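Running co-folding for magnesium ion.
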Amino acid sequence: MNLTEYGLTNHIIQTAAEFPNEQLARVTEQHRDLYQVIAETGILQAQVSGKFQHTALMTTDFPAVGDWVMVTPPTAENGQAIIHRILPRTSALMRGAAGSDGAGQIIAANLDTVFICMSLNADFNVRRVERYLTIAWESGAMPVIVLTKADLCEDLPQKLAELSEVAIGVDVVTCSAKQNEGYEQLRQYTDNNQTVAFVGSSGVGKSTLINGLMGQDVFATKEIREDDDKGRHTTTFRQLLKLPTGGES
Ligand SMILES: Nc1nc2c(ncn2[C@@H]2O[C@H](COP(=O)(O)OP(=O)(O)OP(=O)(O)O)[C@@H](O)[C@H]2O)c(=O)[nH]1
Ligand SMILES: [Mg+2]
């Protein structure tokens, strides 16, 4: 497995070299205390070590999707690889309160870009974009506003004008999955093995865009409700995927 395609950089290789008895891996999925990680040897199921478990104080001390971790191979006992440590994060997208009280949860780590997805239908809401922008800036990753469903919008200039007041200096990409528009612009941010996250309300079309970039239906998508243009939380888990063209999401 070529970890470069999963975002591995020289800096991470150097940091990992401090732990010669352990193997480098990146967290691709989290299911409670079970992790799926990708290592040079392939996909592994992993758990944190007993020592890790006892020294971790806060939720944020535990691995999150996107983290680079040091592991030892699966043991005969339980067939799981063991995660011994997390390498320092370059960015961390948080849900809930950041800081020392431990209330925050890491949505994803080591992101280059956060795609803030907002649909151009009746659900369009500048205040919500503003809230996501705050979270994205605090993460240390670069926010990009991704406007979805352009095919449903009749007043794009008006909406772009509203946005420009809250999104100074932030790139805006207008997409329509239906008309196959915007993908090339999105790829600018996923090229060169960069890691991006898609955030935004249910039903804005995150899974649809990811499927489009992946060139296959990785995620199920679902019709939104007609009365309020909102979705029904079709995708309820997070996953690090390797794009066919390089780049992760
Ligand atoms: N007209 C139009 N519909 C779209 C577009 N993109 C997505 N949709 C539709 O919007 C609905 C919701 O899309 P999803 O991709 O499931 O939305 P999501 O953001 O992944 O939603 P959750 O998984 O619930 O968070 C689906 O019926 C899609 O077909 C678009 O560009 N134009
Ligand atoms: Mg989805």
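Result summary
Residues 206-207, 219, 234-235 surround magnesium ion (ligand 2) (CB under 6 Å).
The first helix runs from residue 10 to 16.
Job closed.
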